């Protein structure tokens, strides 16, 4: 199953001041420890805290850390909040300058997506093939998909959106730093502040598993309203929702057909590293 850094339910203070090599938020503390083997990440529970220790170098910072960090944090008794803090902490404790830390994470993650070594690369490639014209991406989180579209065609109109303003500010700032600026907008995907038919394609990649059915249907109706031509939806197939990543429901092919039928639109469903629902609206 392809994975990527999950969306947060809270505003993460990704650029907040911190002591070099240490990041602590809530009950999670992350420390850089050069006595550990290179590239290692460990976690354990101590006095009701989750302690994460690592010896990562700048070249190791990438979205591909998600799987290993999920494993060690879950084994230590942590949940979603601890996982999210751990991921941010790994970035911030590996490179001391916060802006360069995030630029490094973005550069490395994009490189892995573009060379196909990232687990999520096949999803982004298929989504890019399905888009046409201008694109509005819903629930962009770190914004790797909009960045790839902008990198492939700098003249293409691409807007990244997410409900969390701090996440969009981080994306806007970091995209300029790495030389691939993207337009960002903090907004609720279930109540979009855009006019009817504003863009050619609306994408929602691994967003619906983070919201309940009613909210998901509002998201899709808004997407159909704003799209002139197509809505592209991708979801993971899971036996049970991945709670550590903030998933609240799971999907299979039949559930995607039910959603399409409930919307009352022309649609297709297919499988490719998860499930896809593609709606042609015009």
UniProtKB/TrEMBL annotation:
<dbReference type="GO" id="GO:0032259">
    <property type="term" value="P:methylation"/>
</dbReference>
<keyword id="KW-0489">Methyltransferase</keyword>
<dbReference type="GO" id="GO:0008168">
    <property type="term" value="F:methyltransferase activity"/>
</dbReference>
<dbReference type="Pfam" id="PF08241">
    <property type="entry name" value="Methyltransf_11"/>
</dbReference>
<dbReference type="InterPro" id="IPR013216">
    <property type="entry name" value="Methyltransf_11"/>
</dbReference>
<dbReference type="InterPro" id="IPR029063">
    <property type="entry name" value="SAM-dependent_MTases_sf"/>
</dbReference>
<keyword id="KW-0808">Transferase</keyword>
<protein>
    <submittedName>
        <fullName>Methyltransferase domain-containing protein</fullName>
    </submittedName>
</protein>
<feature type="domain" description="Methyltransferase type 11">
    <location>
        <begin position="136"/>
        <end position="230"/>
    </location>
</feature>
């Amino acid at each position: 199953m392809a994975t990527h850094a999950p969306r947060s339910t809270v505003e993460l203070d990704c650029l907040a001041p911190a002591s070099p090599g240490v990041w602590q938020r809530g009950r999670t503390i992350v420390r850089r420890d050069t006595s550990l083997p290179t590239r290692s990440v460990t976690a354990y529970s101590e006095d009701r805290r989750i302690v994460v220790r690592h010896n990562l170098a700048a070249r190791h910072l990438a979205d591909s850390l998600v799987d290993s960090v999920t494993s060690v944090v879950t084994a230590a008794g942590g949940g979603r909040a601890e996982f999210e803090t751990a991921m941010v902490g790994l970035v911030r404790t590996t490179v001391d300058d916060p802006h360069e830390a995030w630029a490094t994470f973005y550069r490395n993650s994009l490189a892995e997506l573009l060379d196909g070594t990232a687990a999520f690369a096949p999803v982004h490639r298929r989504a890019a093939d399905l888009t046409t014209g201008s694109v509005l991406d819903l629930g962009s989180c770190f914004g790797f998909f909009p960045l790839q579209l902008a990198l492939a065609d700098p003249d293409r109109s691409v807007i990244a959106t997410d409900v969390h303003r701090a996440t969009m500010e981080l994306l806007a700032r970091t995209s300029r730093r790495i030389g691939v600026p993207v337009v960002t907008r903090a907004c609720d995907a279930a109540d979009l502040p855009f006019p009817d038919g504003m863009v050619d394609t609306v994408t929602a990649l691994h967003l619906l598993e983070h919201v309940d059915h009613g909210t998901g249907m509002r998201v899709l109706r808004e997407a159909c309203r704003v799209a002139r031509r197509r809505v592209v939806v991708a979801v993971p197939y899971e036996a049970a929702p991945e709670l550590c990543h903030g998933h609240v429901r799971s999907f299979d092919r039949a559930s995607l057909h039910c959603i399409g039928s409930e919307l009352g639109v022309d649609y297709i469903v297919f499988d490719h590293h998860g499930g896809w629902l593609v709606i042609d609206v015009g």
